[in-house]
Amino acid sequence: MKKLIFATGNKDKMAEIREIMDDLGFTVSSMKEEGIESDPEENGATFEENSLIKARAVHEVCVEKGIEAIVLADDSGLVIDCLNGEPGIYSARYLGRDTTYEEKNKNLIERVNATNDKDRAARFVCAVAAVFPDGREKVVTGKIEGTVAFKPSGNKGFGYDPIFYVPELGCTTADIPCEQKNSISHRGNALRLMKEELLKEKL
């Protein structure tokens, strides 16, 4: 059976990945489920570079362990135009890893308000990288466009969801059920693009 290993230990992320990749004919597992430990320094300048760094690191461990699999990894974050793209690739580390998202969200809204810029445009971005057993690589990027909300709203999401307002929905991504969010999310979009790439491979 062909195998996909995702460079994460996050159960919620794995549920979304399995839902999208389920009909590819692969077994889908996390690196944690495979007993793989990897924590490379994410020192890339873009989401794409960081996703590749993570995928390459897990691929190396797979080669050492004799595991033949396609390794996938993602890197994602919130990009706010009037803040010159911040927090961007530093989304998880913004204001420090131990800072709560409640504090991060409050800070970002205050900073956006302070710019006096009527353009509150923002987007969630997710890059998904694949490293194949033979070392070939592919990277795709998914996005969802929106704006920075004037105040946090919703409790169904996590992270920056309460301040990411989607005009077409008339609410934040924390106001909608996870199933609906997965169907439009940046990660969902990126995973569907990667699925298309894997189908082209005829593996």
Word description of this protein:
By secondary structure, the protein is of the alpha/beta class. It has one domain: Maf protein (Alpha-Beta Complex). It contains five helices and seven strands, in the order βαβαβαββββαα. The chain has helices at 11-21, 47-65, 101-114, 178-184, 186-201; strands spanning 2-6, 26-30, 70-80, 121-131, 137-148, 164-166, 171-172. The protein has a seven-stranded mixed sheet with strand order 2-1-3-4-5-6-7. A hairpin with a 4-residue loop joins strand 6 and strand 7 (171-172). Helix 1 packs across helix 5. The longest helix is centred in the N-terminal third of the chain and has 19 residues, at 47-65. The radius of gyration is 17 Å and the shape is globular. The mean pLDDT is 93.
Low-confidence stretches: none
SSE topology string: EHEHEHEEEEHH
Main sheet: strands, sense, barrel: 7 strands, mixed
From the spread of the alpha carbons, the general shape counts as globular
For the record, what CATH class applies?
A: Alpha Beta
How much strand? 15-25%
First and last CA, distance: 11 Å
Q: What's the number of domains?
A: 1
> Under the CATH scheme, which architecture would be assigned?
Alpha-Beta Complex
CATH topology: Maf protein
**Numbering strands along the chain, what is their spatial order in the largest sheet?**
2-1-3-4-5-6-7
Mean pLDDT: 93
Structural class: alpha/beta
Individual helix count: 5
Q: Work out the radius of gyration.
A: 17 Å
- What percentage of residues falls in helices of 4 or more residues? 25-40%
Number of β-strand runs? 7
